[in-house]
Design brief:
The complex is a heterodimer of chains A (278) and B (250).
Chain A: H1 2-34, H2 39-43, E1 46-47, E2 52-53, H3 56-87, H4 92-106, H5 109-123, H6 130-154, H7 158-166, H8 171-198, H9 203-208, H10 228-238, H11 245-277
Antiparallel strand pairs in A: 1-2
Helix pairs in contact in A: 1-11, 3-6, 3-8, 4-6, 5-6, 6-8, 7-8, 8-11, 10-11
Chain B: E1 4-15, E2 18-29, E3 33-37, H1 44-51, E4 61-69, E5 72-73, H2 79-85, E6 86-89, H3 100-110, H4 116-129, H5 133-136, H6 149-161, E7 167-171, H7 179-192, E8 197-201, H8 205-211, E9 214-219, E10 222-228, H9 229-234, H10 239-245
Parallel strand pairs in B: 3-8, 3-9, 6-7, 7-8
Antiparallel strand pairs in B: 1-2, 1-4, 4-5, 9-10
Helix pairs in contact in B: 3-4, 3-6, 4-6, 6-7
The chains are: A mainly alpha (278), B alpha/beta (250).
């Protein structure tokens, strides 16, 4: 009895400590930059060697990189997951693909950066550009899209598939008109998770797509762009002894976006599980 | 006997090594209710799923012998076309998580009907046939999963009727329903039997006797007896049938 109680208290302290650490880090960083964020900061270009001005091109650039990444990873990832859950047999090859997918999710992002540099920037000749950086992030987000979509599809009751087949639908009709719509909300949750995972990635973009400092917005996908995480890296690298309001503000903006993304995932998950019960 | 819709000869069904149905030979009469009964694991559901080739979805499945639908061997038919002729309703109500209307129009749509007016007419006709129209006519755009269990099952019947099949296969359609919902479905089955051939698997012997014209009794993969409901109840030929009727095994 006594040991049970001690174990409970010790474990409890450890888990609450975890929450405290997260709250301290996120809270401290968001709060310290909060007073630097205003409309001017969000909508203006950096000035005077990035010691003044705002982060508008970095926000826009992050949106560009994410768009290219998702344009690649969402369709490819969903189709791969559809194959794995609806078409492939449960055999060794399927397990191999799923395992490879998990390994892909665990590869350090700097490795993806080097891969993107070699394939997209050099071999394909995209150079340092939005498209090279976006595709690199796209490949990075692919395993998250695949595994989340696969789980969502597998969770669709077999009885829906049977009902559809019994009406004379073929497999493609069943998959695209019944199974995917029935899991679309969960698939979207998976895509939000993927965005949250790649939005803060710095290393891949440093090699493939990040501009150090630009004074006008890129005119097309073959030009480099600034991004929030690389902007934070650049600011802290060139002014190592000085935490500028620009740096604090940028960190704050990025963290707010990431926290908002994962909170929306938590809310959507709770709503989904409630729907499953009801 | 009335002209058969299915002619089945020496049907043997295997799941891998398991011999699930043995040498089944019978004729299923047209526009009658045929109840398939027998103890758990006797092969009733397997038999039903042979008829619309739903067993084909199971990789280890194969069957031998002949199953003819109105003279055509079902193994030579396109399963999609076959299933258009044969509607199926499952044990647990399984409406799609879509609106009531979309549930009914899904079948016609995949078979190429696009005209909105035609789809509306099919919706009303199918829901009327399934005795559900009056309850849902003002909420066709509502999600079908909000209906009660009995309503969901009648919606599934409407969905099966939407493609104008000749045969309705019912796989224990009332086993998940309360007595009142069950009674509604039974009344509905009687009405539908004027237009459709109905084959119903049921675990409830009383139900089988109430609603069927013919009874098939399966025991461990064998078709023991197949006759009119009246003859089966008054004068079963096989000892196993009379034991089952007296409730010795269920």
């Amino acid at each position: 009895m006594i040991t049970d109680r001690i174990v409970k208290i010790v474990f409890g302290i450890i888990s609450y400590l975890l929450v405290t650490i997260i709250l301290l880090i996120v809270g401290f960083l968001i709060l310290s930059g909060l007073d630097d964020i205003n409309l001017e900061f969000l909508t203006s270009f950096p000035r005077n060697s990035m010691t003044e001005g705002g982060i508008w091109p970095a926000i826009l650039g992050t949106a560009y990189f994410l768009s290219i990444a998702l344009l690649f990873s969402v369709p490819v990832g969903i189709l791969a997951a559809v194959y794995l859950s609806e078409y492939s047999k449960e055999n060794r090859l399927q397990r191999l693909v799923l395992t490879a997918n998990n390994i892909l999710a665990g590869i350090p992002s700097v490795v993806f950066g080097m891969f993107g540099l070699s394939l997209f920037s050099i071999t394909f000749g995209f150079g340092t550009s939005i498209i090279a950086g976006g595709l690199t992030l796209g490949i990075m987000s692919l395993p998250y899209v695949i595994s989340n979509t696969h789980e969502s599809l597998v969770a669709v009751p077999k009885s829906y598939r049977e009902a559809s087949m019994a009406l004379g639908a073929n497999k493609a009709e069943t998959t695209f008109m019944i199974v995917i719509p029935a899991s679309s909300s969960r698939i979207l949750t998976g895509v939000i998770i993927a965005i949250g995972r790649i939005i803060g990635e710095t290393a891949p973009l440093l090699f493939t797509g990040a501009a150090f400092y630009i004074t006008r917005n890129p005119s097309g996908p073959f030009e480099p762009a600034m991004a929030l995480p690389t902007h934070i890296f650049v600011l802290s690298a060139i002014y190592p002894d000085n935490v500028t309001p620009q740096l604090e503000g940028s960190i704050s903006v990025l963290l707010i976006i990431v926290v908002a993304l994962f909170m929306s995932v938590a809310i959507r998950r709770r709503r989904e599980s409630r729907k499953m019960e009801g | 006997m009335i002209e058969p819709i299915f002619k089945i000869e020496k049907l043997n069904v295997f799941y891998g090594e398991k011999h699930a149905l043995k040498e089944v030979t019978c004729d299923i009469p047209q526009r009658k209710v045929t109840a398939v009964v027998g103890p758990s694991g006797c092969g009733k559901s397997t038999f039903l799923r042979v008829l619309n080739r739903m067993n084909d979805l199971i990789p280890s499945y194969r069957h031998t012998g002949s199953v003819k639908l109105l003279g055509d061997e079902i193994l030579d038919m396109d399963p999609v076309l076959l299933r258009k002729h044969i509607g199926m309703v499952f044990q647990k109500p399984n409406p799609f998580p879509k609106t009531i209307q979309e549930n009914v129009t899904y079948g016609p749509k995949i078979h190429g009907i696009k005209n909105r007016q035609a789809l509306r007419e099919i919706t009303e006709k199918s829901l009327r046939q399934a005795a559900l129209w009056d309850e849902v006519k003002d909420e066709l755009k509502k999600n079908a999963t909000n209906l009660s269990g009995g309503q969901q099952q009648r919606l599934c019947i409407a969905r099966a009727l939407s493609v104008e099949p000749d045969v309705l296969l019912l796989d224990e359609p009332t086993s998940a329903l309360d007595p009142i919902a069950t009674q509604k479905i039974e009344t509905l089955i009687e009405e539908l039997s004027e237009k459709y051939t109905i084959v119903i698997v049921t675990h409830n012997l009383q139900q089988a006797l109430r609603i069927s014209d013919y009874v098939m009794f399966f025991y461990v993969g064998e078709l023991v007896e197949f006759d009119t409901t009246e003859k089966i109840t008054s004068n079963p030929k096989d000892q196993r049938t009379s034991d089952y009727l007296r409730g010795i095994f269920s």
